[in-house]
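re: ur question from yesterday

yeah so i grabbed the chain u mentioned. its 153 aa long if i counted rite. heres the sequnce exactly as i have it in my notes:
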Amino acid sequence: MDTAQLKKIPLFANLTIDHLQKVAEIASQKQVKANERVFQEGEVGTEMYIIAQGKVRISKMVPGVGEEALAILEPGSYFGEMALIDDTPRSADATSHLACTLYVIQKADLEELMFLHKDLAYELLWTFVRTLSSRLRETNDKIKAFFALSARF
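ran it thru and got these structure tokens back, copy pasting raw so excuse formatting
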């Protein structure tokens, strides 16, 4: 992955060129076919993904309802980052919506990089916090809309 691509991704936008190069060095490319599962809810995660091409559907299975799509992510988006922060199982499914080119960053590699470069760690961790906060707000809005809708019936 080149640094220009990486700089366009919000998670890495505030990093220096030197730090972008270091992150690019630990990212490996993965090809995924259309409708292929990237990971499943409940699995232990050890990596995060960046979408270079294609689309990925993040979803949950809702008992009695079926699959509920939480998001359709496009190139430049990243997902699975929660696995880099905690050791809990995946909270949703990730499935390629179209054939995809993904970049994979392993937790161990990123942890080592952040240990060696504290200023890089500082920037990344704050971006993770802002991302998780934003996603939590979106989820809260969906739950609020769901309950408002269900109260009518």
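noticed a couple things. The radius of gyration is 16 Å. also The CA atoms of residues 3 and 21 lie 6 Å apart.
anyway ttyl
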